[in-house]
Specification:
Elements (H helix, E strand, L loop, with lengths): L2 H8 L6 E2 L7 E3 L14 E3 L13 E3 L1 E2 L17 H19 L5 H22 L13 H15 L6 E5 L7 H11 L4 H17 L13 E4 L3 E5 H8 L5 H20 L15 H20 L8 H12 L15 H16 L10 H16 L10
Parallel strand pairs: 1-5, 6-8
Antiparallel strand pairs: 2-3, 4-7, 7-8
Helix pairs in contact: 3-6, 4-8, 5-6, 8-9, 9-11, 9-12, 10-11, 11-12
The protein binds zinc ion.
C-alpha cells in the first residue's frame, strides 16, 4: 500500500450532513435536457466507486455533496428549504454542464462526478494545495485569519489548529490531478493518461467543470487538528441570503467546537460514547459543537454577534441535510440544533457569566446539564425562514 493511501486510511469520521440522501440511484436523463448527441436511452447512473478509497472515519464532516444525477424536477422530502433550493439550482447547473460535454462514456461519470470530489478533499486535507487562502480570489483570507486568531485567544488554543481553504480552481490543474492519481490511486499509467484526456475534455468544454461550487463544498474537522472549509459551501449558504462573513465565522466556530472535543477526547465524559458512529452519538457531539458555536459567536469577548444573526445562519445551516434522521451521520433536528446553540447563547449572556470566558471543561459541563432538555425540544423538524 502506498504511503499516502495508508495516511488516508488513518483518517476517521462520523459522516455529517447528507444533502441528497433521498435521491434515486439511477435516473434516466430527461430527453429534453440531453443534447442530440447523447443517446436518448443513455442514463447517468450513480458512478461506480471512484479511484480513491478515502476513509474519513476519524473526522467530522458537515456536508456530503451527493449529487442528484438529473435535472428533472421531482418533489423531494428534503426540499423546500432555502438551502435546498440553492443547492438544487447548482446541482442542476452541474449536471447540465456535465451533459453538455458528455459523449456517453460511463467512465466520465466516475471521474468527473466522483473522483473530482475526492481529489479536492485530498488537496485540502493532505496536500496543502491552494489551502492558504479563502474565497476564490482570497477575498476572505484576512477575515478568516482574524477569526482564527479570535478563536485561538478565546479558547486558549494558540497555534494548535490548521485551517485550510478549498477551491474549484485546484481542479483546473491537470498536472496536479495526474499527481493525485499517481500517488493516491492504484490506476496504472496508461489508465491515468486515459483519465486525463477525459478530465481535459470536461474542463475545456463545460462551463461548470470545475467551476461549480459543489466541487469545493467541503466542511470538516479531522482528528489531526485540521479544519477544511471550501468556498463552495460558503457560496451555497450565502446565496440563501446570508452575510458571507457570518457564514465563514459560523462554520469555523462549529468546526472549532469539534477540535475542542477531539483535544478533550480522553478526558470528557458523556452519557453515551462519543464518536462511535451511531445516530445518538453523532447527534450528541454535533449538538455540543452547536452549543460551543452559540457560546463563542455571541460572547462579548468572542464574535459578539447578536442572537438574531446567529439564528439566521444556523437556520440555513441546519437545513442542509434533514433527511438523515436515522443515519449514523444524523446531526440532530434543526429544532434541536437551534436549541443547543440558544443554550450556548444563554450561557454566554447570562447575567452572572457575562464577560467571563468559561474553561472548555466548564462549557462541556454546562452542555451536559442541558442535553436532555435540548434533545427533548419538540418542534417542526424543518425550519423555513
Ligand atoms: Zn459538525
Amino acid at each position: 500500500m502506498k504511503r499516502n493511501q495508508q495516511k488516508i486510511l488513518r483518517l476517521a469520521l462520523a459522516i455529517g450532513l447528507t444533502l441528497t440522501s433521498c435521491s434515486d440511484d439511477t435516473i434516466p436523463v430527461d430527453e429534453t435536457t440531453a443534447p442530440a448527441a447523447v443517446n436518448a436511452k443513455a442514463s447517468i447512473t450513480t458512478p461506480a466507486k471512484g479511484h480513491f478509497d478515502l476513509d474519513f472515519s476519524n473526522s467530522v464532516r458537515e456536508f456530503k455533496p451527493n449529487l442528484k444525477l438529473t435535472t428533472a424536477v421531482e418533489p423531494s422530502e428534503c426540499g423546500d428549504t432555502p438551502f435546498n433550493e440553492v443547492a438544487d439550482y447548482y446541482n442542476d447547473l452541474l449536471i447540465d454542464g456535465f451533459i453538455s460535454a458528455w459523449d456517453g462514456n460511463p467512465d466520465a461519470i466516475t471521474i468527473i462526478l466522483e473522483d473530482y470530489f475526492a481529489i479536492n478533499q485530498i488537496a485540502a486535507a493532505y496536500e496543502g494545495k491552494n489551502t492558504d487562502y479563502f474565497g476564490a480570489d482570497g477575498e476572505y483570507t484576512n477575515y478568516v485569519k482574524q477569526q482564527v486568531r479570535s478563536l485561538e485567544k478565546f479558547w486558549g488554543m494558540a497555534n494548535l489548529i490548521t485551517v485550510n481553504g478549498q477551491h474549484t480552481e485546484t481542479l483546473e490543474d491537470l498536472d496536479f490531478i495526474q499527481y493525485i492519481y499517481e500517488n493516491y490511486s492504484s490506476a496504472p499509467p496508461e489508465e491515468i493518461d486515459y483519465i486525463l484526456e477525459i478530465a481535459e475534455n470536461f474542463n475545456t468544454n463545460s462551463d461548470q467543470i470545475p467551476e461549480n461550487p459543489f466541487f469545493a463544498s467541503d466542511g470538516f474537522a479531522t482528528f489531526d487538528r485540521t479544519i477544511v472549509i471550501g468556498d463552495g459551501i460558503v457560496t451555497l449558504l450565502e446565496e440563501t441570503g446570508l452575510d458571507p462573513k457570518v457564514v465563514w465565522s459560523s462554520i469555523l466556530a462549529h468546526e472549532w467546537g469539534h477540535q475542542i472535543q477531539f483535544l478533550n477526547f480522553d478526558d470528557w465524559q458523556y452519557p453515551i460514547p462519543a464518536f462511535n458512529d451511531t445516530p445518538e452519538s453523532t447527534r450528541m457531539t454535533e449538538l455540543e459543537a452547536d452549543f460551543i458555536t452559540g457560546y463563542f459567536l455571541t460572547h462579548k469577548r468572542g464574535a459578539t454577534y447578536n442572537w438574531k444573526r446567529v439564528e439566521d445562519f444556523l437556520s440555513a445551516f441546519f437545513n442542509i441535510g434533514d433527511c438523515g434522521f436515522e443515519s449514523p451521520g444524523h446531526h440532530g433536528t434543526p429544532a434541536q440544533r437551534l436549541a443547543a446553540a440558544k443554550a450556548g447563547f444563554d450561557l454566554a449572556n447570562g447575567t452572572k457569566k457575562k464577560g467571563q470566558i468559561l474553561s472548555q471543561q466548564e462549557v462541556h459541563n454546562a452542555f451536559l446539564s442541558e442535553l436532555d432538555a435540548i434533545v427533548g425540544t419538540s418542534a417542526s423538524r424543518r425550519i423555513t425562514k
